[in-house]
Specification:
- This protein is α+β, with helices and mostly antiparallel strands.
- The protein is 39% helix and 15% strand.
- The chain has three domains: 121 residues, no CATH class; 149 residues, 2-Layer Sandwich (Nucleotidyltransferase, domain 5); 67 residues, Winged helix-like DNA-binding domain superfamily/Winged helix DNA-binding domain (Arc Repressor Mutant, subunit A), CATH 1.10.10.10.
- The strands form three sheets. A five-stranded mixed beta sheet has the order 6-5-4-7-8, with helices on both faces. The chain has a three-stranded antiparallel beta sheet with strand order 1-2-3, with no helix packed on it.
- A hairpin with a 2-residue loop joins strand 9 and strand 10.
- The longest helix is centred in the middle third of the chain and has 18 residues.
- The radius of gyration is 27 Å and the shape is elongated.
- Bound molecules: zinc ion.
- Zinc ion (ZN) binds next to loops.
- The site of zinc ion has 8 residues, from loops.
Length: 393
């Protein structure tokens, strides 16, 4: 439609509530309202055309065009919702809740709720299996342990810390010249990749992956499987065996997160994946077409309660008992107030103390092992330094 060609025309057209209602009726029901309770197509307008009443004599229910959609029972007017849909679906790298709040003069909390409700509608409810040539790879999402605050690090350590402790694993599958699928794995175990690939990729496909063992096993169930060995710097073989398409999509996803959202919690990560997948798969549409498409399937709402409840993902991602408790190096009490002070340390090999030093610096000088490596081992960021374990005395 011509009035959603760009933002200027969108604002000009959707100047009042009635125009928004007429547009939504067109997008949702093709111009003829259907009762959401009994599916009857007999209706008449009430409340000056703002709502409808079912003409089926057994039903007689009143309804509006937003019932059952993310906009249902919202205090935010449709003249704000419609531009919000446009801004969210047209920005190539997404839009943050703070920016949306400033653009539409609503609070950041409202904007965050609006964005998450819109994301819910962008989720592809059902999509065909990927066929032909399909590239599969995984992406680890989550910051580095060394960049965390002391408090966050202490929480991690209480829950059996590992390298993947604060990471979420995202599996990306892309059909060359076709659709992308991004799914957040329930945990970071490589075994969880298997059902995700089987669920999304048709058995007639030829897989392209890196040389990881998990993929080699998965590949046995497909018509063909080719892999490139990244560990020997092999990225393309024979011109067509590569995973560059999925790596490219991951690059864009990473830049979206870093540039626009900065930090995404594991709890909401799957919604960000849905949004990115929607934008990536419809990248050849114009902004206006993508906006209208998003409003074509607006069934399904999301309540504030559902949005903010703990879905357990966060806890699942943190608790990763991969390192036995015995060698966990946690000294939260000892670490308190040690900044700038010298704390004696001991060097451990196979559980036996083989050396004691007045400070980390002294230990480094005596053993030739870098001070930073010893410090990391002491903080519990790494298991050992120079082949030894280290503890504060
Ligand atoms: Zn009805």
């Amino acid at each position: 439609m011509q009035y959603t060609k760009n933002l200027k025309e969108l604002i000009k057209h959707f100047s009042d509530e009635q125009k928004c209602i007429d547009f939504l009726v067109q997008q949702r029901w093709g111009g003829c309202p259907r009762c959401p309770y009994c599916n009857s197509d007999k209706w008449y307008r009430i409340e000056n055309g703002k709502r409808f009443k079912c003409a089926n004599k057994d039903c007689r229910k009143k309804y509006s065009v937003t019932v059952g959609t993310p906009m249902h029972a919202s205090n935010i007017p449709l003249t704000t919702w419609i531009p919000a849909f446009y801004l969210i679906t047209s920005r190539k790298k997404g839009i943050s809740s703070c920016q949306l709040a400033r653009d539409l003069s609503i609070s950041q909390k409202s904007a965050w709720f609006v964005i998450n409700r819109v994301r819910e509608t962008l989720r592809q409810k059902e999509s065909p299996l990927l066929k032909n040539t399909v590239e599969v790879d995984e992406l680890y999402h989550g910051g580095r342990i060394k960049n965390m605050s002391n408090k966050e690090r202490a929480t991690l350590k209480e829950n059996n810390f590992s390298v993947f402790a604060n990471k979420s694993m995202i599996i990306g599958m892309i059909e060359r010249g076709g659709n992308l699928k991004l799914e957040v794995a329930p945990d970071t175990n490589r075994g969880s990749i298997i059902p995700m690939v089987y669920r999304n990729v048709d058995k007639s496909a030829s897989l392209m992956t890196d040389g990881e063992g998990t993929y080699i096993n998965i590949g046995k169930n497909y018509v063909s499987h080719q892999s490139v060995n990244h560990s020997i710097d092999e990225y393309v073989r024979d011109g067509y065996i590569h995973t560059n398409t999925i790596e490219g999509a991951f690059g864009l996803f990473r830049r979206t997160i870093i540039g626009t959202y900065h930090k995404v919690s594991p709890k909401h990560l799957s919604r960000y994946c849905d949004e990115f997948q929607f934008r990536y798969n419809l990248r050849k549409m114009t902004d206006g077409q993508r906006f209208e498409f998003s409003l074509g399937s607006i069934e399904g709402k999301l309540s504030w309660k559902e949005l903010t409840k703990d879905n357990g993902l966060l806890a699942e991602t943190i608790i990763q008992p991969t390192i036995p408790k015995a060698i966990r190096l946690i000294h939260p009490e000892k670490r308190k107030g040690t900044r700038g002070k010298r704390t004696p340390v001991c060097q451990i090999l196979n559980g036996e103390v083989i050396g004691k030093y007045d400070s980390t610096i002294a230990a480094s000088e005596a053993t030739g092992i870098a001070k930073t490596s010893i410090s990391k081992a002491l903080r519990g960021e790494t298991v050992n330094a120079g082949g030894f374990q280290w503890k504060y005395l």
